[in-house]
Amino acid sequence: MSNEQGHSLVHHRGETVTSLSVQHQERGRSQLGKIGLMCMLTALVSLVALGQGSSSQLDVFTTARIVLGLDDATSVQSAIIWELRLPRVLMAIVGGVGLATAGALMQGCLGNPLVSPLTLGVASGAALGAALAIVVGFSITSIGAFAIAGNAFVFSLLVVFIIIQLGRYRSISAESYILVGIAITFIAGAVVSTLQFFATDAQLSQLAHWSFGSLSRPDMAVVLAVGICIVALLPQAMMWSWDLNALAMGGDDFAISTGVNPMRIRRNILVLSALMTSLIIAFTGMIGFVGLAAPHMSRLIIGNDYRKLLPASAVCGAFLMVFADTIGRTLFAPIVIPVGIMLAVIGGPVFMYLLLQSKGVQR
Amino acid sequence: MSDFLAVHDLSFSWPGRTVLEELNFEVGPNQLVSVLGVNGAGKTTLLKCINRILSPSSGSIHLLSSDVLSMTIMDVARQVAYVPQSVGTNFPMNVFDVVLLGRRPHLQWFVGDGDRDKVSECLHFLDINDFAFRRYDQLSGGERQRVVLAKALAQEPKLYLLDEPTSDLDLKHQITTMEKIRSVVGDQTAPSSAIIAIHDIDVAARFSDKIMLLHDGKIRAYGPPKEVLTVELIAEVFGVEAEVREDSGSLRITIQAALKNEEGDGE
What we know:
The complex is a heterodimer.
Chain A: H1 15-50, H2 60-67, H3 75-110, H4 122-136, H5 147-169, H6 174-198, H7 201-212, H8 220-239, H9 241-256, H10 262-284, H11 289-302, H12 306-330, H13 339-357
Chain B: E1 5-14, E2 17-27, E3 32-36, H1 43-50, E4 58-63, E5 66-67, H2 73-79, E6 80-83, H3 95-100, H4 113-125, H5 141-154, E7 159-163, H6 171-186, E8 193-197, H7 201-207, E9 210-215, E10 218-223, H8 225-228, H9 231-238, E11 240-247, E12 250-258
Helix pairs in contact in B: 4-5
């Protein structure tokens, strides 16, 4: 394609040029290999997670043999694995994939490494929705089981809708989006605090439990529905990876000169990541850290090319969630520590260690 | 009239301040145009308007007879490459991948061998192939500048808009880089042109086909270096006393001293 274009670049063609191209291709393959390895690790941790629980007849190895089809299960065993343990592990995977992808998307489109899926006030909207359902008894849906989740979902999207509309009204910069998000977080937080002030002890405890972020007893139908939605949204995220590269690499001017409309793409990406985040935290409660840490850990392993970073973040998120949840429910069994807390306790120090180690590392 | 770039009545203003006022000029194929002017004269604004980073308040821009202002951003990027003064980032990629972004307007999603080879060529051309896989944030300012220029070359545009492309380069690379830009623009088989905002008046005189003197948002003079870069005009626009002489066919300009403020309007 470049030959006929001429330039005086032509005489540089030949072996040296090919060697750089080949190197680039090889680096790409090695990155894909790393992602594959991360997938296998996650599968392994998930298998171990399925083997963890109070049932004495289902240890890790028995479970693994059953799941891999090597042994036949009794009806009790299969009920425990497929109906009790699997939904929880699946929800951890789905939640990790969704939150980490949303985090990577938002960091890229706002060009800011401090951003997590909860930065734009999505979480405060969800908390407000949950508080309204728990304390006031007001809910968007009439289905009791979904009173809290439905409220959390709708209110978190409402917050994003307000922010996006503000952005449309006056085309605002990436920093302004973050500032508006913070402002809304404060406003929603004030309302939630007011509601807490008037709440009963039982309501307060329920609200606190929701806000820990946990994976206890998810319904398989819910897990599948959320999972299908998240998986359906992933290809769109991947489609935007070039645009994200341009935006994250050089900001708005650089993106425009690369053919990317920063205002439009930022809006679209914010909507997509908010949708993913709301879907998950509506059912799990406040799990924020994985959306901040998983993309950064993946950046250290894979680099900042979003074509590989997005899948890497998704897998890394799933790994972190399954790992943290499994530790959380085995460490002090039968007491289960909510995954949100475990993530911060385990992930925080690991995250800091990786960041300090990475100074000057080549990617 | 001109078949390459034609700008008519181009104006741009921020609320309460006019930056560019009814600029009219044309750039022919294979031309290198240097835009000179003091800080705040509107050089960067002009480049950004042509690349659609800023929306002009009025006027028209036609590139190869197509109306740039009504194209999509992607279509503009296929024809116009812009190199900002500096590109900073929170999420640095390696040099090869930054330059690969120049191929973005020409590819769907997957990267082909042709795209990789084009990137490799541009890296070799600007002598930055040795650090093709170093991270962008670990480069010096001058190296970064050449990386972003390589990205523009990989874009294979018709029009290059370069905002002080040599400001961070050492003396040797200032000259070699300008020579390379000159050779790319001069290539008759692939007509392209470049508009370069630049401060070094001597470099501009040596490498440009035309010089545009921007003064208070207006074009004070536009034409071949010998006609534009006169002692009088340099004094008027820059407020400096200069010596202009011809050295084996090319114009050499030496700045002697800054003029006192009163002298500017003393005629």
